[in-house]
Amino acid sequence: MRRKKQNDLLTDVELEFMTALWSLGGGGVRDILARIAPDRNLAYTSAATIMRILDDKGFVTSTKEGKQLIYAPALSKDAYQTRSLQNLSAKLFDNTPATLVARLVDDAGLSQESLEEIRALLDRRLGDADD
Amino acid sequence: MRRKKQNDLLTDVELEFMTALWSLGGGGVRDILARIAPDRNLAYTSAATIMRILDDKGFVTSTKEGKQLIYAPALSKDAYQTRSLQNLSAKLFDNTPATLVARLVDDAGLSQESLEEIRALLDRRLGDADD
DNA sequence: CTTGGTCTACGAAAGGTTTAGAAGGTCGCG
DNA sequence: CGCGACCTTCTAAACCTTTCGTAGACCAAG
Questions:
Q1: Which residues form a coiled coil (chains A, B) (predicted)?
Q2: H/E element, A64
Q3: Which domains does chain B show, CATH number per domain?
């Protein structure tokens, strides 16, 4: 059975848990739950269910260690960031990344510092292959 | 009563319809449905329901013209692009736009052309205050 | 061996999304 | 007037997401 709706995007809660797992590198349900916002008050079984779903969907791998399951990301955060950007670019920006960046740098809430950081990035990226 | 889950993001189908409406500027259900991918085969009443929901949520405005409702975006595409980027930046990039752009320009699928377009954008934006 | 703690798996409930049929209004034309 | 065409509104079904309780497995300590 395949996903039928989205390509391979995480739902809100799934992303919350993957973020915790990425920062951890790996761990059991209790470790992961400890990284979730404390005011969340999520039941342990809820967390376990989320992790099982992530496993089913292939976003994490699990290995039995003693009596508990240890989870590890099956997809790096970088890779997922790229995937999300591609999705957003396709859905909302006509697959033209330049428009996406334009909207980003037009955002008044963006600091000068951030802008310069971004240009430095681009200079580095374009400097190499420049002819 | 307000939305309870997301800030103010469109669902998949809602985005599909808003995209049609943005490209149209405004129109009735039949106009909008004509802009949706033709292999979609969506019933007219389904389209009407989506538009009513968008109206309820405040994403469009409607005015009665004769016997039909004419819809217009209550939110520009630019504004929604900005909103989406802010959301993605907060959820997945720790609110550091530079990281977002880094992931974007690291994407091997990005053409040299796009990269240069992006840098030109930044130069224009930063050129003023350059030292 | 039995009890208690910890774990995973299953199932259900509540809410949101997507689709579409049924019902009822309105308008123009014969 | 009455009919058909077209429109909106209501309602429901199917599915997905999120949350959690219950049940069953397993192990260690008394």
A1: none
A2: strand A60-65
A3: 12-73 (1.10.10.10), 77-127 (no CATH)
| Tens digit of pLDDT at every position of chain B (131 positions) | 334 445 699 999 999 999 999 999 999 999 999 999 989 999 999 999 999 999 999 999 999 999 999 999 999 999 999 999 999 999 999 999 999 999 999 888 888 899 999 999 998 988 755 44
How many Å lie between the alpha carbon of A73 and the closest alpha carbon of chain B? 15
- Whether the CB of A85 is below 8 Å from some CB of chain B: the reply is yes
CA distance B62 to chain A (A): 23
Segment holding B9, helix H or strand E: none
d(CA A9, CA A23): 19
Alpha-carbon distance values, B24 to B19, B30, B72, B77 (Å): 9, 12, 9, 12
Look at the pTM and tell me if it is higher than 0.85: yes
Q: Say how far apart CA A49 and CA A38 lie, in whole Å.
A: 18
3-state secondary structure of B64: strand
For B97, the closest of A82, A92, A110 (CB atoms) is A110
